Amino acid sequence: MAGGLLASGALTALFAMALAPPSTSPDVPTNPPSPAERIRVEVATVNGSGCPAGTVAVAAAPDNSAFTVTYSDYLARAGEQSDPVDFRKNCQLSLIVHAPVDYTYAIASVDYRGYASLQSGVSGMEKASYYFQGSPETKSESHRWRGPYADNWQATDTKPWEDLDWAPCGSKRNLNVNTELRVLIGASDPDKTSFMTMDSTDAKVSSVYRLAWKQCPSS
Predict the structure, then answer these.
(1) CA neighbours within 13 Å on the CB side: how many for 1?
(2) What spatial distance separates the first Cα and last Cα of the chain, rounded to whole Å?
(3) Is 15 helix (H, G, I), strand (E, B) or coil?
(4) Beta strand segments in 48-172, E
């Protein structure tokens, strides 16, 4: 079910693997404050060709340091008998982060993972943006791969502390997360299939959204 939490046993194993430090760490204070109360992340709405109903799960880390989004049917492909619209898949999530009212949070970095099989001459792209409800959309980040390529892929978006976009204090605003995969066949052989995924069938491949926290000013 979209937004359903992973089982507790799988959740522990998932975060033990997924929350390893990213290759490029955001510039954040050594000991940023975080709420003692356990947060929850809930999917308000989900739309897009890359995330049909029932194919998305969200879970928060026990220490409030991050949350994961796991997809099970997020695949873009081109070539052979692929449908012409399959070259691009997207997913738009509206998330409710249940956090204490005296704290605010920001997305400090995000790890995206998946698998790609790209023929020679084919290019694959992952693109993402995240912003708070009612705020202008932030600049999107994109990453590209060129064939021949047949391996797991990973991309990390980071922001320095001074550039983080914080949830407004004293106001409940949903966090909008928009992602996209594209497979562009170019001048490659159209009879050969290329594809790129951001999905998981065993709850081990997830997008990891790492959180920064700070306390709201006293009213």
Answers:
(1) 5
(2) 39
(3) helix
(4) 56-60, 66-71, 75-78, 88-98, 103-118, 123-132, 141-146, 149-158
